[in-house]
Records
---
Amino acid sequence: GSDPSPSPTNPPQQSSTLTTSRVTVAPPTNTSPAPGGGGTTCPATPSGQGNPVANALNDPFTFHGGGKVSSKADWTCRQAEISKLLQQYELGTLPPKPSSVTASFSGSTLSISVSEGGKSISFSVNINNRPSGSGPHPAIINFGTFGGLPVPAGVATINFNNDEIAQQQDQSSRGKGKFYDIYGSGHSAGALTAWAWGVSRIIDALELTRAQTNIDPARIGVTGCSRNGKGAMVAGALEPRIALTLPEESGAGGSGCWRIATWQKNRGENVQESKQIVTENVWFSTNFNSQVNNVNALPFDHHMLAGLIAPRALYVMENTDMEWLGKVSTYGCMGIARKQWEALGALDSFGYSQVGGNSHCSFPSSQQGSELNAFIGKYLLNNPNAGNTNIFRSTGNQNFDLNSWSPWTVPKLS
Ligand code: MCU
């Protein structure tokens, strides 16, 4: 383990033109059934990006067509809409479950084969530290090689080689990896979306091999650090079977908001912003390239990526030490994301903890006992007394106005 420190680059300042005109969206013409059924009808999502939002984050509780989110059923509809918009403008399309997924378990190796449209791939993951005892037991899927959390006894770890599913060397990685072997190198999904697809296939495989693995597919956590923390966040957002999402120092493109980063950048702070991130790697869809010079036009920001997880459990770990990694932009973004758990009466399943004095992706012990273990205890080990999980804290001196950046009402949803 060498310290995989980020490479803070400082590209020349570009001036960006902010759109101030009002963009009209077509009125909803039809509606669609709510995900999960129950007879609820969701409002149709008008085409177009809607009105730009500047110096504030978008209102998660107003539908794209203007209607208000006023119940939990509405929230489910709004989440489906937000997911669709995120895929359209930033992440690329998440394909539906493939027509064939098969799996086998031998030793500690879970082997997964996937076929769709005449193409097939296979990959495998190791399930380590499987607890003995009757079970079934929970597990945490860990992306790649950066960082890593101290996982308590009673929880298995599953090592996911995400780079095999979608490469992330640099720009030349576009369309490379097993996801693209199935869906084609021109598929719109960026690497983050492709990895989420891979996580979903691991969970499919766990559902198929439950009797052999003794792992409970309903108690799965997901984690990763830095670029892989972005991956953990997107997997938690796009895969509702994940019970606990644990992104570590995900920064820009994970728990940071695009608008906050650009606002900081315009004040001369060296934070990673959208214009730069699309030149570094292939984490996002090429659809995002045409958005990065005008982030105020996005019909979402990353507080709403996080909101796709609500009310499931999310514990975000960040660092205060490097502006590049989103010291302010993750604090502001997650401080506002938290309001979605508040609306759902679920503040116990939201944590944001920002601690300095540790190098990038080295887990500080002050987050372990009373925070990480409380989340894992409550949401994976079924221990309701595992400790307080309503957490929002930073050891940094933050000077960010959460209220002026969220000038909308938080409803009480039931
Ligand atoms: C925080 O994640 C990234 C960051 O977005 C990149 O700019 C930097 O190059 O690498 C970080 C990382 O993944 O470090 C391991």
---
Amino acid sequence: MRAYIYDNLPGDQRLPHDSGRAVDVDELRGLGVLYYRFPSLEGVDKLAAERGYKNRDEITVSPEKMGDIYEDKVKMFFNEHLHEDEEIRYIRGGQGYFDVRTRDEDWVRVQLEKDDLLILPAGIYHRFTTDESNYVHAMRLFKEDPKWTPLNRCPQLDDNAVRKEYVGQFLSG
Ligand code: KMT
Ligand code: NI
């Protein structure tokens, strides 16, 4: 895992876009974003049990697996959105970038690789993309049924109760 401020320069979303400003795990924690490294599934199983996660699935995001819809999927994952539940992703192979918003509306780009697990809190604005390798294999963890409805960012979403709760807990004061 490596995290840094996104440079906001034009260019393919899959390029690193590294501004050169590093972000450490304490800063991530300040945004409610938790990082773990689990070399085996044991650690993941334990975390899932502790947090009440009953279900999981695995997804491979690559042109080989997805064919013609790959480019559309990658663009969709990159739309800024939030969820009303936390989002947990465990990377089993390849790499990918999760971008999360700071209180200053910068993006922190979190580069994940095999064995990295990231927890995004409910209500945080974020987006995802593969990198130049165009390959990531990830496990998605769910408390109940696989459901992770993305709510795309728009002004009215600031009134969403889960968003307000997130802002109150992590972005104010
Ligand atoms: C997400 O939340 O954007 C995804 O599930 C993308 C694939 S998992 C790395
Ligand atoms: Ni999401």
